[in-house]
Amino acid sequence: MSTEILMPALSPTMTEGNLSKWLIKKGDIVKAGDLIAEIETDKATMEVEAVDEGVVLDLLFKEGEANIPVNKAIAIIGDPNEKIVLKKEALIEKVIEEKKIEKNIETKIENKKTDIIDTPSPKIEEDRNLSSEEITMRQALRDTMAEEMRKDNKVFILGEEVAEYQGAYKVTQGLLEEFGKERVLDTPISEHGFTGLAVGAAFKGLRPILEFMTFNFSMQAIDQIINSAAKTLYMSGGQINCPIVFRGPNGAAAQVAAQHSQDFSSWYSQVPGLKVIAPSTPYNAKGLLRSAISDPNPIIFLENEILYGLKGPVNNNVNFSIPIGKANIEKEGKDLTIVTYSIMLQKSKEAALRLKEEYNLDAEIIDLQTLRPLDTETILNSVKKTNRLITVEESWPFGSVGSEIANIVQRDAFDYLDSPVIKVNSADVPMPYSLSLEKLYLPQVDDIINAAKKVSYIK
Amino acid sequence: MKKLQKADYIKMYSFMLKIRRFEERAAQLYGMGKIGGFCHLYIGQEAVVVGILMTIDKNDSVVTTYRDHGHMIARGLDPKRIMAELTGREDGYSAGKGGSMHMFSKENNFYGGHGIVGAQVPIGTGIAFTHKYNGEKNICRTYIGDGAMNNGQVFEAFNLAALWKLPVLYIIENNKYGMGTSVDRAAAGLDLYKRGEAFGIPGEKVDGMNVFSVIEAADKAGKYVREGNGPYIIEVQTYRYRGHSMSDPAKYRTKEELDNYKQTDPIEIVKAEILKKKIATNDEIEKINKDTLDEIKNAAEFATNSAFPKDSELYTDVYL
After folding, report:
1. What are phi and psi of A297, to 5 degrees?
2. What interface predicted TM-score (ipTM) does this complex get?
3. CATH of segment(s) A3-110
4. pLDDT tens track for A74-89
5. Domain A328-455 adopts which CATH fold?
6. B262 contacts chain A (CB < 8 A)
7. SS3 assignment, position A252
8. Does B246 touch chain A (CB under 8 A)?
9. Rg of chain A over CA atoms, in angstroms?
């Protein structure tokens, strides 16, 4: 049997090549790995090796011949006794066949969905059995971690100052004492390294909880979060998942200025493979963190420093959880919908009280709880009822979570809208230090009221 | 050092040859447009991974860079499915979703195939962390290219591994060039194996063209790590015959330099040793050559006939 040696594509852009030099001649015996020719490409002259073995039966081009198309036969090797048949037609057919396959692939891509892949919101009824005593958000988070660590030895926590110091914001208080230094690990200040380490541990089957002292420092580690944690399940064809929770405070603190006060909710929500959660109360912090720790996927769990001291009742059942991907209707209303999350829930509630008192507007408040996957069903149902929507969040305006919600609502509930969607965001500038400027930067109750008036056409 | 049996010599030779033939065939398929994107060949470096993996326990873990085809073959994975991943087909190790740079086999403790320079170093350190956390006696072999040795996260990982005494063996595959930049133009201080010294990590330099030297070093280092002494660094001096990736004409080095390295071809060294020790005859070697060529030919055949992934696969494996 004879084999054709084809003009190879030696770079992704090469379509034809020049035969600079033959390193074999007719009658030579060629072994796999032997150099056979020098080919000049659009970039350089490169050597080509044989991958098949046999006798060189014919060289189909002379040295110096130019513009030979890729995939055209340039030599024939094989059994010397065999009659040489140039299978030109067969070759052309093959090329046409390949083009067809390529076409086929293109058609497939035309049919792709542009929708975000959402796992559908689970229809699980929450157990709203509340405790009589109120605890802080900080305690709620700590208790939930401790409860899950008691249940599963694979759960451990690492981060800067989480052990001996008891947590920069005291969220891990007491964990070292209960679980020991093998499961509560102080890391050096090297986010990129310890995030990669935790991702590796999760690939291998542990369930790390990684605390970023603040999410500002997750920027040091974002390559491992996006490129390793979020994508490896996909790139491994479903073999290697990454059950990890990245948690810590996100968003503005108080007068810590541009590098320590920013909101990353829309950054992470953009990434397929991540789930993004932003609790607003001790109650949902408990339920959501439990779901996060039990989830087999990488989770971004965005807490808020100012909310750590917020007190509220919780559900003390150690199996109580709130499903990921489910929004909470914090307050029902009929005149307009306010969609919000995290700390802006508090300001939205204040605004709703004043809207009722001052303008007789009955606002419905939706607390997203999970940003990705987004509970679009709850949002759309509300908008279909109230016909007006404002979104309230702390992030910068460009491409924010509210931008995506506005897109979904105009697409899926266009005919229900009585006014354009209005977004309330932080100012489109880095966070200033000065107290007065900081207040101007952040969305305030008045901003929410003004947006509500605007969608209701109230002057 | 590990006492080599006759079968070990044959195994080494077969694996190294299989890697060489596989890569040559991959280059051909790339030339025919059957393989796309980035494709980094391992030709010339075969003695490194084969030498290292001669000392592996089956429950040990491995994590490596994007120059990973040879690493998978040496781990005993099926060339058919590796090639099918290169051609982006459903039978590939990553079901066609990873490609040349992102291949995994969890059941064989092979954790990739990583496309970002240096990223696999903390990840391998974390896999080692898990071995220790679980009380297992296994170690994680973490490969690092010479280019990654100037990347910050590598030192963060070294510090963590030494601090927490993690069972990780770092293997620096120094093939002299990070893409087109020679090591001496990128690294201040050419003894890369000494870069763990500040953390108390022992290191040594090994001739990576000679598989026997690699085995000796890997055996010693592997024992050190497995006994709970913390990490160890081996810098293996090697050379890639091909460019950085398929489209690299490698103009930054001379033909003489390449030819010089080919004089110490790692496969020829093993072959000479086999013949000298009369472990196999010339005919037996020829038989291995032919069988290897056939196996890889079949792999290419398989990989070009396997189906493209189904459309619906686009949306799977995003979440578990």
Report:
1. -110, 165
2. 0.93
3. 2.40.50.100
4. 999 887 565 544 455 5
5. Rossmann fold (3.40.50)
6. no
7. coil
8. yes
9. 31
